[in-house]
Write a structure and sequence with these properties.
This protein is mainly beta and about 270 residues long. The chain is built from 3 helices and 20 strands.
Amino acid sequence: MKPTLSALYVYPVKSCAALAPSSARVEPRGLAGDRRWLVVDANGAFVTGRAHSRMPLIRATPLPGGLRLEAPDMPAIEIATPPAAAPRRDVTIWRSSVDAACADAAASAWLRTFLGADLSLVHMDDAAHRGVNPDYGKPGDEVSFADGYPQLLISSAALDALNARLDQPVEMLRFRPNLVVSGTQPHAEDGWKRIRIGEVEFDLVKPCTRCIFTTVDPQRGERDASGEPLKTLTTYRRSPSGVTFGQNLIPRGSGTIGVGDAVHVLA
């Protein structure tokens, strides 16, 4: 079998709906436009679908100079990318503190109406920086508002193996990957250390530990009452660090990758 990049996903706003481009530019922080926007609470703490299961129903579409937000039973709204002189605030995401640019107050009102909480939208511009965990990255490695690393890769065979164990199959977007690879054995990515896709090489640095967000159906914006697929994953994918599914990547260069590109395993 020859590994091939079979899907690309970009999430303009963390925890919101995925876009599926046929190609994307790889930047040091991850795919261009991926998780450069973040929803935060009144204290500046990051907010995700773990607490607000309806967040995946929000579709964010990049526009020249901004972002368009859409959601069921809501009027669409266009939000301008904050200018250099925009107010800034410290926001927290896990153990990181990021000096982010504040989006227009109209975004806060829109989010408050749809999600029913006092929330705001912030943007990671070139002036905002967030380092990767130095235990797994190199000095200077950065990440967007993704959980911890610039990109996440999962093999389609891993999902097939999981669905073979489930009464009701789930879709790949339960796991919010950036890169999906076909033409491998299930979880082949667990044994990879370095790969090349198109023009770009990547280090695979750490398995991705899964959480309750995997139980949220992104099409319905509701949590699965049965606790699946996390319940089943626990029976065969548990490790000392938790339940893992997929691998975190750090790009070692910039360039364009596209669906159909060969995935070369270098180490």
